[in-house]
Amino acid sequence: MSEPTEQPKLSDVLRDRREKLDRIRDSGIEPFPHEFSGREDIAEVRAAHEGLVAGIETESRHRVAGRIVARRGHGKACFLDLRDGSGRLQLHAREDLLGEEAYALLVNLDLGDIVGVEGTALATRRGELSLALDRWRLLAKSLRPPPDKFHGLEDTETRFRRRELDLIANEESRRIFRVRAATISEIRRWLDEHAYVEVETPVLQPLYGGALARPFTTHHNALDRDLYLRIATELYLKRLVVGGIDRVYELGKDFRNEGVSHKHNPEFTMLEWYEAYADYEKTAHDLELLVSEVAERVLGTTKVKRGEVEIDFAPPWRRITLREAILERAGIDIAEHPSREALAKAMGTEPDPTEGWGKLVDGLLSREVEPGLIQPTFILDYPVELSPFAKAHRSEEGLVERWEAFVGGVEIANSFSELNDPDEQRRRFEQQARESERGDEEAQPYDESFVEALEQGMPPTGGVGLGIDRLVMMLTGTASLREVLLFPAMKT
Predict the structure, then answer these.
(1) DSSP 8-state code for residue 446
(2) 192 and 137, same structural domain?
C-alpha cells in the first residue's frame, strides 16, 4: 500500500509563488498591468454559442479575463478553467498556436492567477464549449494559493472573516450575494413604479429614535458634541410626510448596539416606506404584494425551500392577532392578565425589574410564538407599551394598530398606522421616560423636534420597516444572517 502524498507546507507554497513572481519580472513581463480592455463576460460568450454541436470549431473570436481555477493535461496541450464574475469557461492551450515560450509560461502559472486571453470558440468532442487560445496575458499574480489548496475553507468562522476566500471557493456564496443584489434592485423598482420618492436622511443624529433599541454613540470633534448612529429612519421620514412627500422611502444602514446572533447584527440594511392616507391594513396588503413579486422576479417562483419546509410567499398571508397567537401557542390570555405582576404569575416566572408588562408580552411572543411562524404570517394589534409611534387601535382599548410579519420563524417587517396626534405623542414619550427610569436601556428618548413637526399636521399615514438581510435569508434558504452579510460582525 502506497504512502499518502505529503502536502507541502504553506510557507513552502508561498515561497514558491514569490520565486515565480521574481522569474516573471526577470523575464521582462509586468505581473500587475494596468488594464485589459475590450473583454467580454464569460456568460456572454457562453450565451453566444449555446447549443454548439460537439466537435465544431468556429471562427468567432473572443477576449475574456478571469482567475485560473483548474488545469488538466500535460505535454504540448492542456486545458484550463477560467472563471470571472459571470461564469466559467474552458480554455484549450496548444504549444503550436501560442508558441513554445508563451505556452511554457502559461502552463507554469499557478491556480488563482488572473489572466486575459484571446482565441476562437469551439466545442470539444464531449461538447464542452472552449476557447482555443492564440494569445494570453498575465493580469495579476496570485501570491497565495486558492483556499481549497490548504484548508478547503470549510471552517465557518474563516468563511465569514475572509469573505474573499469564501467567494473564490464557493459558488453557493456567490449565488447568495447575486440574489441579494437582485432583491434590492427589484425592491427599488417596485417602490419607484408605485410613485415612492427615495431619499437619504442623516446617519449621524443628535437624538436617536424610531425604535426600541440601544444606540451607538460617537463624538463630533468640530461641533464638540455627542452624536448617535441611527437606529431607524422613521422620525425623519415622517417629517418628510409632514412636508408633503406623500410616498417616501429610504433603503440603507441602521445600527443597534445589541447582541450578535443568527438573526442579529449590529449594522443591518433596512427599508422603510411611508404612505400618506394609508393605514396598517393597506401596508400589509402592499408588503405581501412587494415580497411575492420580488421573489417571483428574482427566483422565478414564490416558493422557497428552507430546510425540509417549502415556504410560499404568494398572498394572502395568514393574519392573527397577538393575543390569539400567544393564547394558541402558550395557553395564556394576556388580556386576562393586564398587569405586570399578574402576567408574571401566569408565566410562572420572576421577571427582571426592568421589564414592564409590555416587555413580558414581547418575551412571550419571541419565545413561544415566533419560532413556529414558518409560513408568512402577520401578527396584529400590539400593546401600546411596545409601540410608542403607533396609532391607538380604533376598537381595542390599550392596543395599537401595528403588525409584524414573520417568515421561517423570524420577524422580517414591522408596520404601524402611524401616530399623528402630537399631544398623544408627547404622552407616549413620557411613558417611555418612565420605562427608562425603570432601567430599560432600549426606551425611546423624548424628541421635541419630532413633536413640533407633528404639530404642523401629518395626514393619516401607514409606515413599514422591512429587514433586507432577513428577507434575503428567507429567499436564499439560509439559516444565519451571517450567510447574507458580506462582512458580518465577529468576535475577536
Answers:
(1) P
(2) no
Among residues 80, 111, 145, which one ends one of the domains?
145
Q: Which of residues 130, 145, 160 is at a domain's end?
A: 145
Low-confidence ranges of the chain (pLDDT < 50): 1-2, 149-151
Which range marks the domain in which residue 73 is found?
Answer: 11-145
> pLDDT for 140-166, tens place per residue?
999 999 986 444 566 788 889 999 999
Q: Are residues 111 and 252 part of one domain?
A: no
* Alpha-carbon span 380 to 401, nearest angstrom: 7
- Please tell me the total count of domains within the chain: 2
Report the chain's terminal Cα–Cα distance, integer Å. Answer: 45
Sign, Cα dihedral of 183, 184, 186, 191: positive
292-337 tens-digit pLDDT: 999 999 999 999 999 899 999 999 999 999 999 999 999 999 999 9
Residue whose C-alpha cell reads 395564556 in the numeric block: 332
What average pLDDT is seen over the chain? 93
Instruction: Count other C-beta atoms under 10 Å from residue 56's C-beta.
Output: 12
Nearest to 445 by CA among 235, 221, 218, 202: 235
CATH number (domain holding residue 91): 2.40.50.140
**306 and 179 fall within a common domain:** yes
Report CA torsion sign: 14, 152, 472, 410.
negative
| Cα–Cα distance for residue pair 267/265, rounded to 1 Å | 5
Q: What's the whole-model pTM score?
A: 0.90
Claim to verify: residue 139 and residue 175 sit in the same structural domain: no
Q: What is the pLDDT of residue 491?
A: 85
| Residue 154 included in any domain | no
Q: Are 457 and 449 in contact (CB under 8 A)?
A: no
Alpha-carbon gap, residue 402 to 382, rounded angstroms: 6
- C-alpha distances in angstroms, 260 versus 156, 176, 257, 264, 482? 15, 21, 9, 5, 10
In a domain, 203, yes or no: yes
